[in-house]
Amino acid sequence: MLKKLELVIAACFYYCGLVRLVRWWTRRAGSRLIILCYHHSNGANFQQQLRYLNRHYRVLHLEDALQELYHSQPEGPRKRDRRTLVALTFDDGYHSNYTDGFAVAREKKTPMTIFLIPGYMESGNRYWWDEPDRLVEHARVREATIEGRTYHLDTVEERSTLRDAIEARVRLASSVAEREAFLCIVRKALDESASPYAEEKPSLPLTWPEVHEMDASGWISFGGHTMHHPILGYLADPAEAEYEVCESRAVLEKALNHPMRTFAYPYGRMKHIGDQGLSAVRAADYEWAVTTIHGVNTPYTEPHLLHRILVGADQHWLVVAAKTSGVWEFFLRRAARQEVLYG
Questions:
Q1: 25-40 burial string, b = 16+ CB within 10 Å, else e?
Q2: Which residues are within 8 A (CB) of 87 and not within 5 positions of it... i.e. 6 or more apart?
Q3: Element containing residue 25 per DSSP (H, E)
Q4: Engineering a disulfide at 277: which of 14, 121, 194, 273 sits with its beta carbon 3.0 to 4.6 angstroms away?
Q5: Are strands 112-116 and 143-146 parallel, antiparallel or unpaired?
Q6: Which domains, and CATH codes, for the chain?
């Protein structure tokens, strides 16, 4: 129901000409870069999104777009192309970015940038944020005691409560070691084996051979996303934050044999980044770092706190059109303020 409502709203924005008007205004406003933030890249909707974006925007690799935004002006035919710059970025490096996204990038001749987590690539383990749902779903006990609380898993409410407790505990962990130790306790308590499930492969990390193939194609560029995806602002030790950021760059550069210039903060809001996250990125000497703070970038945007717009590969192209233009966020925020003011 919610998706249908979103589509109706987006269609109204598009077919009344508002999206087109805002695109025109953005072009007239000067140098702008819109960075879209995806995770997965599969589905027919994604192909339709690319068709729209390639028609109305100039889509570049993130690094090329940022170089142009901050340092240089395009030459030749590009100089006459006044369409607003867009970069497509994908966090975490899911296997679906290879099986689906890479194929579409080649077919549509659309550059993309993927932020990788080398620790997960090397282990092949599932990402920690997928574990709460999976562990509870595959629990082989009817009752489990975890950190002093007993959960009765034969009720929907208790299963939901356990899932939320696991999610909060791993998300707020003050170190990677603490997070992984807690997950081991949960697996043991739920009698859940760590063996992979075939149906989960699209959500597993990319492999090095897949990354090498994409890198060699020229259509996919890569950036760092820490070694193990901790929330940098929540880590107790600033040295661990620096290690996570610096080591990810070192590992990626050694594996791909060329510099890594961009970084994506895990989760990416200011409370998740913290002073130590920003310091770690600067210590790692990344030129640019992207957040998940909504907005459009100008030549005056802080290079280590770049804005992005969150979208999904499963969304209708009309919704992505409205979000990319900025119309979506503007009107939704306005509606939210009106509701707060007038109830």
A1: ebeeeeebbbbbbbbb
A2: 33, 34, 35, 36, 59, 60, 61, 62, 65, 66, 113
A3: helix 18-28
A4: 273
A5: unpaired
A6: 31-124+211-312 (3.20.20.370), 128-195 (no CATH)
